[in-house]
Design brief:
Blueprint: H1 6-19, E1 32-37, E2 40-44, H2 48-57, H3 59-70, E3 75-79, E4 94-96, H4 133-144, E5 153-157, H5 163-177, E6 183-187, H6 188-201, H7 204-212, E7 216-220, H8 229-244, E8 248-253, H9 265-271, E9 275-279, H10 284-297, H11 304-313, H12 318-335, H13 341-348, H14 362-373, H15 377-380, H16 387-403, H17 408-414, H18 420-436, H19 438-451, H20 463-467
Parallel strand pairs: 2-3, 4-6, 5-8, 5-9, 6-7, 7-8
Antiparallel strand pairs: 1-2
Length: about 475
């Protein structure tokens, strides 16, 4: 027994970075090796959220890494402060149930006794933009003043836009500020499963005590109540019990209350009685910051042009952005290469690849514009209005409208999150100017030839039309 060589931890982290790059986080550096005893490597983790996350999601990978770097059949055990000898962490007042990435872990009995939150999903790591500002501000207020800020708090958005992130962040902040707070976080499916199990077992008293004797109830994917008449009835009474007692309720959904099919009107009314906040798809600038933040969490800072490229190429949701970062990391590890724009293009590919038709993609148009006018992608998609940027941007919008089937709104989204009126103005401005500016007309013909596959755009070719 004794403290292991500190270099063991460094070797373990290096092994993880090579073989599990998507798993690694910057806070892994704070993990402290305590001892190797009875064939077990004990690692100290001081933050409870990180400790629970590692125990649930990373034990196997750390164990494989420890065995690989020491050539010993070691087990790995994560312990909190004061737990060196204990087998389990102290009991906490937070429970977590559910399915999918947030609740698919090992459970002990009917209820999982620890809430497994992702350290990634904190307010600190939530990128605020115009598309999520209200939801974020309300979530912070709820976390700081449960039951007194916005009750109920209902968040809705498409898939992968940050609803679960905010629910995790609310839990983490509420736990930090009010350690004795009784918090219950579950998916709607988890609620339904517990309800049906309790009905069959004749244990409804225990079920109701579990869900109604809390200070903060968070339910993810509440839209799954659709067409579940018996469960809707039970949730209605659970909601009323908590609400009348001044307890905080937080719900998330893929749709606003009024648009959840076959949801009882009395539930719709109650969901609408608090604050309903919508999260939209992030604009280009927000996506760039999200990419940088997600990469930094993995200790993989990206060059600005790579972050800009990924954000321009993928505009669907945050999970797709994370997937792109994972691919870039993997390509860099496999090829033992530095992450640069060329590597990012190889890893991400043409996410918006054209079909077999002759229509080019907006990304092909953007690539042609940046090369032809010799402008940076970040500038092209930014809010800058300087003439040297505004004209290439307008030409790009004009080409996108002519050669793709995207709507004005979609084109504006690709060009830095602009609205359809901006795209309309760009098209009119280019149509007006090209008739009076032969140089511009010539440049646009060359660009069209290039994006349709018949030629090559040359850097600096358009300087005469920009300055004219």
């Amino acid at each position: 027994m004794g403290r292991p060589d500190p270099r063991i931890k460094d070797a373990v982290l290096a092994h993880l970075k090579k073989h599990h790059p998507d798993l690694c986080r910057h806070w892994f550096d704070d993990i402290e090796p305590l001892e190797i005893s009875s064939g077990t490597l004990k690692l100290l983790v001081r933050e409870n959220v990180q400790l629970n996350y590692l125990r649930r999601s990373c034990t196997e990978q750390f164990q494989d890494a420890a065995q690989a770097v020491t050539s010993r059949l070691l087990a790995v055990k994560f312990v909190g402060e004061g737990e060196v000898v204990q087998e389990t962490a102290p009991e906490v007042s937070v429970v977590h149930e559910g399915t999918g990435p947030d609740g698919n872990g090992r459970q002990r009995g009917v209820v999982q006794e620890e809430m497994v939150l992702s350290p990634d999903y904190s307010f600190e790591h939530f990128i605020v933009g115009p598309d999520n500002r209200l939801a974020h501000a309300a979530a912070v207020a709820v976390a700081q003043n449960p039951g007194r800020a916005y009750n109920p708090f209902f968040i809705h958005s498409g898939v992968g836009l940050g609803k679960t992130h905010l629910l995790h962040a609310i839990c983490q902040t509420a736990m930090e500020q009010s350690p004795g707070l009784r918090i219950y976080y579950t998916s709607c499916e988890g609620f339904m499963t517990r309800f049906l199990e309790s009905v069959q077992a004749g244990q409804m008293t225990s079920f109701r005590h579990r869900f109604r004797n809390v200070d903060l109830l968070l339910v993810d994917d509440i839209h799954d109540l659709s067409k579940r008449d018996r469960t809707q009835e039970e949730f209605f009474h659970t909601f009323n019990s908590l609400y009348q007692a001044g307890r905080q309720i937080v719900l998330s959904s893929d749709a606003p209350p009024n648009e959840i099919p076959d949801l009882e009107e009395r539930l719709v009314s109650r969901f609408n009685c608090g604050l309903v906040a919508r999260i939209d798809r992030p604009c280009y600038e927000t996506r760039v910051e999200i990419v940088k933040s997600k990469a930094a969490l993995r200790s993989t800072p990206l060059p600005d042009d790579v972050a800009s490229y990924v954000a321009a190429r993928i505009d669907t949701n945050i999970r797709e952005l994370e997937g792109a970062i994972t691919k870039i990391q993997s390509m860099a590890v496999i090829n033992d290469a530095v992450i640069d724009l060329e590597l990012a293009k190889q890893a991400v590919g043409d996410h918006t690849a054209a079909t077999a038709s002759q229509h080019p993609t907006i990304q092909q148009i953007i690539d042609a514009i940046t090369k032809f006018y010799d402008v940076k992608l970040t500038d092209l998609l930014s809010k800058r209005r300087h003439k040297s940027i505004a004209l290439p941007r307008q030409v790009g919008m004009w080409l996108a409208r002519k050669h793709t089937r995207y709507s004005l709104e979609e084109i504006g989204g690709y060009f830095g999150g602009r609205d359809h009126t901006t795209v309309m103005h760009a098209i009119k401005a280019v149509n007006s100017r090209r008739h009076d500016d032969p140089a511009l007309s010539h440049d646009m013909s060359r660009l069209e030839e290039h994006i349709l596959g018949g030629g090559a755009a040359h850097t600096g070719a358009a300087h005469t039309s920009v300055s004219s």
